[in-house]
Write a structure and sequence with these properties.
Elements lengths: L1 E10 L7 E10 L2 E7 L15 E5 L3 E5 L1 E6 L15 H11 L5 H17 L2 E8 L7 H14 L2 E8 L4 H9 L26 H16 L7 E3 L2 E2 L7 H14 L3 E2 L6 H11 L3 H7 L7 E4 L7 H10 L2 E4 L1 H6 L7 H6 L5 E2 L12 H10 L14 H15 L17 E5 L11 H7 L6 E6 L2 E5 L2 E2 L4 H12 L10 H22 L1
Parallel strand pairs: 1-4, 1-5, 6-7, 7-8, 8-9, 8-10, 11-12, 12-13, 13-14
Antiparallel strand pairs: 1-2, 2-3, 5-15, 15-16, 16-17, 17-18
The structure holds zinc ion.
Length: about 500
């Protein structure tokens, strides 16, 4: 079915107030095939004879490209609002020490809850760095894909895995025993102190991911994608990344890997490798445009920023999580000034804690003002918005096809009510979208040429039933119970290690 949006205002950086007024948008299949003044493109002028046409009245609506969250973890949806005043390392021990082992249904529900919140707030695409607190099974991966398939959102899933924990090595050297904690039982379900791991579990996991990618990558009219998600620079060997990149390239997929989110991680990597994470990846030929690097907070030196710019890997900014966990502020201005493409993400719902990209955009546009008093270095509204659209498209390997509204682009469109209290009186559209909007003005959402939200209602899923089941299942999860003595001790041990490292790097 073709869709015609008539008499709609369209976000356009070249127009007065960044808004091209009274336009029509024609969508055929999953693409925008025409955008023109409504007087030139209307029902009478169209000769789409062979397919039915659905007409949306665009009066008092603003069309924007769908927002793209380039980093989240859907399994954290059960733990919304459950933590505060914790930096990443002890937070991780709490998270994996209390989450229990999810079923496939849990993964389905968590991904569905992410998709519901995102679609209703104008997010049309998400990159889910999917974790599981135990050994991977194919059914967990399929469950997340099925939720995204059913929801209608554009989704890319990158399962998390690792093969060597350099944090443990650093803790050992400083006299802290973290091996009994989550740091000793890692993603993929293995013991990091077992040397046979990479010949066994990693190979098995990669073989499973290979088959899963064959079944799901670029399916459902290209709406669903599969990437590989090596967990983080401090949790993988060079060999693991080489194998991962090889497999990703075989499928035309990407690599998604946490990168120096905290100073502790930077410390552990430098201790193990004698150089920064970016220097290591650069030297090993592991930086390229299909590599996305969530956080990238502690990439600071001009040399590392130049390496990143030269090779084209994409940092993903997660300002809400970086503030909540006190991790630091990415060098976003320095990156943009070097021509580095920066994407934006919400991060998991236990560290941000919602999945609202309007929050992420506003934070990205504001928090960097604190770093330099000179306003010429501050992030503009348009730069922040484009990180959430064009930057996200590049992160999904859809650069040139997604992230703006023009002819030939994939039809991921959000229609906002310009008569809402948030957007009236619609001054410059970038300023309004970034500094005023919360997602509450979202009226209709189109993903890949399909209407998935109409008049603020999600058409694809039974939201009420899913929320009821989500409540029910959350009740039996261990994180709702008092923390047991072993997990308490693991968290305390990690706090002690964290303090020792932070004291040494900040003194
Ligand atoms: Zn993350």
């Amino acid at each position: 079915m073709a869709i015609l949006i008539e008499h709609v205002d369209v976000l356009d950086p070249t127009a007065p107030c960044s808004t091209a007024r009274d336009r029509s948008i024609l969508i055929e299949g999953n693409r925008i095939t025409q955008i023109a003044p409504a007087a030139d493109l209307n029902l009478q002028s169209l000769t789409i004879n062979r397919q039915p046409l659905y007409v949306i009245n665009g009066h008092n609506l603003l069309a924007i490209p769908g927002l793209i969250s380039a980093h989240t973890h859907s399994p954290e949806n059960y733990m919304r609002g459950a933590t505060e005043r914790m930096p990443l390392e002890p937070w991780l021990v709490w998270l994996y020490g209390t989450c229990g082992e999810y079923t496939a249904r849990d993964h389905y529900l968590c991904a569905a809850m992410s998709a519901i919140e995102m679609l209703l707030s104008g997010v049309t695409a998400s990159l889910d760095h999917l974790w599981h607190g135990g050994a991977w099974k194919r059914e967990y991966l399929d469950a997340a894909m099925e939720a995204y398939r059913d929801s209608g959102i554009r989704a890319t899933v990158a399962p998390m895995y690792d093969d060597h924990d350099y944090v443990l090595d650093a803790a050992d050297a400083l006299g802290y025993d973290l091996r009994g904690s989550v740091y000793g039982l890692s993603h993929g379900g293995y013991r990091p102190d077992r040397d046979d791991y990479r010949r066994g579990v990693l190979r098995d996991n990669l073989a499973m991911f290979d088959a899963w990618m064959r079944d799901w990558h670029r399916t459902h009219d290209g709406r669903l994608q599969t990437f590989l998600g090596p967990a983080a620079g401090q949790l993988v060997t060079t060999e693991c990344l080489q194998w991962s990149l090889e497999l990703a390239r075989k499928h035309g997929a990407g690599i998604h890997m946490h990168c120096v989110e905290t100073r502790v991680q930077d410390y552990c990597i430098r201790r193990a490798r004698g150089k920064s994470v970016i220097h290591w990846l650069y030297d090993e030929g592991l930086l390229s445009p299909e590599v996305t690097l969530p956080h990238s907070v502690w990439i600071r030196s001009p040399e590392d920023l130049d390496r990143l710019a030269e090779r084209g890997a994409i940092p993903v900014h997660n300002p809400a999580a970086n503030l909540k966990l006190g991790s630091g502020l990415m060098a976003m201005r320095e990156m943009l000034d070097r021509g580095i493409t920066v994407a934006l993400g919400v991060d998991g719902a236990c560290s941000s804690d919602n999945q609202n990209m309007f929050d992420a955009i506003k934070l990205a546009a504001l928090i960097h003002n604190l770093k330099n008093y000179d306003p010429r270095t501050w992030i503009t509204a348009r730069e922040a918005f484009e990180a959430a659209t064009l930057g996200g498209a590049a992160a999904l390997l859809l650069g040139g096809q997604l992230g703006q509204l023009s002819r030939g682009q994939l039809a991921d469109i959000v229609l906002l009510d310009t008569r809402s209290a948030l957007l009236a009186p619609m001054n410059d559209a970038y300023g309004m979208l970034v500094h005023c909007e919360t997602g509450a003005s979202v009226r209709h959402v189109i993903v890949n040429g399909q209407i998935v939200v109409r008049d603020r209602r999600l058409l694809t899923m039974d939201v009420e039933a899913l929320v009821a089941e989500f409540f029910e299942r959350a009740d039996r999860l261990p994180f709702r119970q008092p923390i047991d003595a072993k997990t308490r001790k693991d968290i305390d041990d990690c706090w002690a290690f964290w303090r020792a490292v932070m004291d040494s790097v900040t003194s």
